[in-house]
Amino acid sequence: MKVNRILTLIALAMAVFGFFVTGRAELLFAALVVAGFFLASGPVAAALARRTELSFEVRPSCLVGEDHVLDIVVERPALMRGCLNLTFECSNLLLGTRKLVPVTLPPADGDREHYALPLDTGQAGRIAVALASARVGDMLGFTEVALKDAAFSSSYTVYPRIVDMDVTTSRANRAATAGFVFDPHRKGQDASEVYELRDYRDGDSVRSIHWKLSARFGELMVREASHPADFDLAVVCALHRRDCNDPTRTASIGAALSLLTSMSRALLNCGMGHSVVFRHGDVLQDAPIENQMTFERMVDTLLSCELPLDVTTEVRDFAAFQRAHGITKVVLVTDAVCEHLFGELAEFIELNVFYVGGEGDLNVDVSDGYTLTRVSAEAVETRVKSLEL
């Protein structure tokens, strides 16, 4: 755009200079034509901007490394087509990274022009995509005008690859005792234990109404059923996002997410009740995995939560969380080795650590009161076929 203006001004100056030197009328005519096109470019671009419509569509999900595109449809007058300069802002909510993607769309044939913009799928996470700016230029590339009504905001999720693996555990599933031990933090369908008493809401079953309390307080009260506490095994995500612009770091994070989700699904497939624990802001969040739906919901939530900047070394919060949720064994998936942290955790809970990073295939160390398994990022999908927790 800037180059076109400079070249036009040079051509205009040469034509005017040539006219004064030679007196040839055709040079003056050429100068007037060039000046006319230059002066008309602004109104033409403004008219084109008013009559240009953009629409966007992106599929909601894909796997790491798969082709994924943003479909762009442009509708504008056929005789007034110039280049479209768009800028998209892409933010990975998991890694906290943000980048601007400039795109120039040249004129195309047809009443509706279709374009496919390749999207980044190299890193797992939920990716927010928004149109930061849209400008349309005239046909000769002299002037750009912003499209004031152009707006777009959406997201897509890049899922880690889940590996089929066999998981064996050193303990029996406490789900066998379901109905005898109940989780005070979760409601369910077992009416033999009461989770809480609350006011009646539209849609509540008549069978859940506590008639004696309702008569006593003069308002309808209902019982919330409790849920058996069979989630004493927790898979903990202990990843961090420092230096996540380094390809080696992002490869470790992606492989660790693949290992964590593969491990959780393998536990689900063999009927092992468990929870997945991760940080959501400054709070530890517990996601009980009961079925495929809760597993998928956990993965979506995990990929949407920004990882902490560093691996936390605060054990006190987790100790309180562990006691409140009845967790007796932790499988920690991390991309950093913090021996001091691991040692403190191992003092009050059975601990199994999986460190993803470095080189080599599998290396198991049980010398410090907990099991530390080191696995390289490359080996997660190719060599990890069975695990003992």
Total beta-strand segments: 20
Overall mean pLDDT score? Answer: 79
Q: Which residue ranges are poorly predicted, with pLDDT under 50 across at least 5 consecutive positions?
A: 172-192
How many helices? The count is 8
> Mind summarizing the main beta sheet?
7 strands, mixed
Strand order of the largest sheet: 15-14-13-16-17-19-18
Strand content: 35-45%
Q: What general form does the structure show?
A: elongated
Provide the structure class: alpha/beta
Q: Helix share of residues?
A: 25-40%
Return Rg in Å: 31 Å
Order of helices and strands: HHEEEEEEEEEEEHEEHEEHHEHEEEHE
Distance between the termini: 62 Å
Question: Explain this structure to me?
Answer:
By secondary structure, this protein is α/β, with parallel strands linked by helices. Helix content is about 30%, strand content about 35%. It contains eight helices and 20 strands. The strands form five sheets. A seven-stranded mixed beta sheet has the order 15-14-13-16-17-19-18, with helices on both faces. The N and C termini lie far apart (about 60 Å). Mean pLDDT is about 80; it is low at about 170-190.
